Amino acid sequence: MATKAILDKEYKDWIGQLSNRYRSAQIKAAIAVNTEMLQFYWELGRDIVSMQSENKYGSHFFEKLSKDLKEAIPDSKSFSVKSLYYIKRFYLMYSKIFPQVEGIFENQDDVAKCPQVEGVLFQIPWMHHKLLIDKFFNNPETALFYINETVKHGWSRAVLDHMLDMNLHVRQGKAITNFRKHLPQVTGELAQEMTKDPYIFDFTNLTEPYKERELKNELLKNITKFLLELGEGFAFVGQEYKLNVGQTEQFTDLLFYHLKLRCYIVIELKVTKFEPGFLGQLGMYVTATNHLLKTEQDNPTIGLLICKTKDDVLAQYSLEGYNLPIGISQYQLANLLPDDFKSALPSIDEIEAKLKED
To answer: How far is CA 233 from CA 136, 158, 214, 240, 259, in A?
Structure first.
């Protein structure tokens, strides 16, 4: 019976390995199919542009091309007039930042197979690309930022859409810190990249005035959205985490562990503007966490102070007196549009009318 039990365990382990290998093969197959399709779109977009098709065949070229492709490839749903416009813009958008690629190959069909194109553009789904084309057609470098982040973190289309709404590209890595000075080079760069300024907590339901405890409770009530805003790698450890320091009990606002940085991160929230005195309290929490929680396998604890507002120069000067890795940022509860901007936005009726024209 013991032998049978061992064999059963080996068999179950083997089945588990096969399952993992199959899923891996499925993912690779899906990526391969996506790559081939995007390569086709790139080449089709290039052909449309290089043939100057609209000048050659008239203003109804896209309608004719859509009709002819649907007849030639009846099982495809990718050739609506709107899709063809996207395909053209896909090529136009990214050929702006890969101009050198177009002159490398005698056979232009090989251009889309170049690592500079295939290794970057073809790693995310087409629906992701359509979001980026809509938002950054005239700014492909920013689109590349989101492509790289999507590949790195495996973002779904919904998550990418959220990050676009939150303007991640102008916030990521922007906190005022001393990480590069007090952490090893690679760790310091990674730690800087994981910060944002400002953090946007628009999922809370707070109205003025509110207290720090109310803000913390709202963040934890929406912990999934809070973690998404903090970024990949944050694991929640506790709220008002107790640290026994000497004869006293000290409580951190929020304690996290960062899986990539392999360190504890103490976050202090302040619902007022930044004051230099806040750093003394945070520094004590960071030191206590190093003594009481950090193991030999962990990297030094990082402190992150998030205030309602801050003076950047005052924050920078204040950090110079600390030899602990600390960052300072601010938060926003919502992205509120000014009234004059809201009035300039098109109405639903206007949007629908424009779509009918297209």
So the answer is: 28, 19, 25, 21, 5
| Ranges assigned E (strand) in 210-338 | 234-245, 248-258, 263-273, 302-309, 326-332
Element (H, E) at 337: none
- Reference 334, options 169, 200, 159, 196; nearest CA is 200
Q: Compute the radius of gyration of the chain from its Cα atoms.
A: 26
Give the pLDDT score at 275: 96
User: CA 257 to CA 50: how far, in whole Å?
Assistant: 52
pLDDT of 198 reads: 95
Give the model's pLDDT for residue 7.
Answer: 54
Q: Nearest to residue 133, comparing CAs of 118, 143, 124? A: 143
- Find how far residue 58's CA is from the centre of its chain: 41
CA distance 202 to 218: 11
Over residues 290-321, the pLDDT tens digits come to: 999 999 999 999 999 999 999 999 999 999 98
- H helix runs in 78-198, sequence order: 81-95, 115-121, 126-136, 140-153, 157-165, 179-182, 185-193
CA distances 226 to 2, 44, 59, 220, Å, are 49, 42, 49, 7
CA distance 181 to 177: 9
Residues 272, 248: Cα–Cα separation, whole Å: 26
The letter for the amino acid at 16 is G
| Whether 329 contacts 282, CB under 8 Å | no
pTM value?
A: 0.75
- pLDDT tens, residue by residue, 191-204: 999 999 999 999 99
| Cβ-Cβ contacts under 8 Å for 44 (sequence gap 6 or more) | 87, 91
